[in-house]
Design a protein that fits this description.
extended, 237 residues, 68% helix, mainly alpha
Length: 237
């Protein structure tokens, strides 16, 4: 009995040690940011690449030994994309800014290939039923679709898009994107100390214009208040 009791005590002690070690490991894992780990790994890969390039006389030949053609091409595309993104950070015009926002939004919306194929099939069936789409077999046996009235293959004069009705999930996603953009805009305004003034009429186009109007009001409101009130009542001559 004493031996069994000592064995149970030893097992209990080992279990406590194992549980404590697992708890520390889990706490460390939860405290670690996955995005930070990814960033560190990316920096490590970039530093290794630069170090290898600096230490190797014929870098391209060395890389051809160690990497496959696909890996080398992927790395070159990545560096080219990174350099292009670095050069495209600054503000050039509003068209470029809108293009960058559009590309960022596209990254957050994965393509739904199944829904696209379903809509395409339904569009073909509607066009074929209305007589606007005809299947023609060529001399080599290939089947092609001929758009007779322009209802399937859209052109500049096509008006079939007015009959398209988006799904509720797509509308909800658009509403969420608009809300997120508005929340980000308001957050940036608060960071700059530009709170929205909801009291009174908005007589300014930006914050600098608002400050200028406030400065004018401090000096000239006592002279123009009667005129402004008369204009608002409609009794001014």
């Amino acid at each position: 009995r004493l031996d069994r009791f000592k064995a149970l005590q030893a097992r209990q002690k080992a279990s406590r040690s194992a549980n404590l070690q697992e708890s520390k490991t889990e706490r460390t894992r939860q405290a670690t940011d996955p995005a930070l780990l990814t960033q560190i790994e990316r920096r490590r890969a970039t530093a290794s690449h630069k170090l290898l390039k600096a230490e190797t006389a014929d870098f391209e030949r060395k890389r051809a030994w160690d990497w496959t053609a696909e890996e080398a091409a992927a790395w070159d595309r990545r560096l080219e994309k990174k350099a292009k993104h670095r050069d495209d950070v600054g503000f050039a015009d509003y068209t470029q800014q809108a293009r960058k926002v559009y590309k960022r939004q596209l990254r957050d919306v994965p393509p739904d290939v199944a829904a696209y194929e379903k809509q395409k099939k339904e569009a073909i069936e509607r066009a074929a039923a209305s007589g606007g789409l005809e299947i023609v077999e060529t001399e080599d046996g290939e089947l092609i679709a001929v758009d007779l009235d322009g209802s399937f293959y859209s052109t500049a004069e096509s008006t079939e898009f007015v009959n398209s009705k988006p799904e509720k999930a797509a509308v909800d996603r658009l509403v969420d994107d608009i809300r997120k953009a508005e929340a980000a805009r308001m957050k940036k305004r608060r960071e700059r100390g530009l709170e929205d003034d909801t009291g009174g009429d908005v007589t300014y186009i930006n914050q600098k214009n608002k400050q200028f109007n406030d400065k004018l009001a401090r000096f000239y409101n006592k002279y123009t208040s009667d005129i402004r009130d008369s204009f608002e009542r409609g009794t001014a001559i």
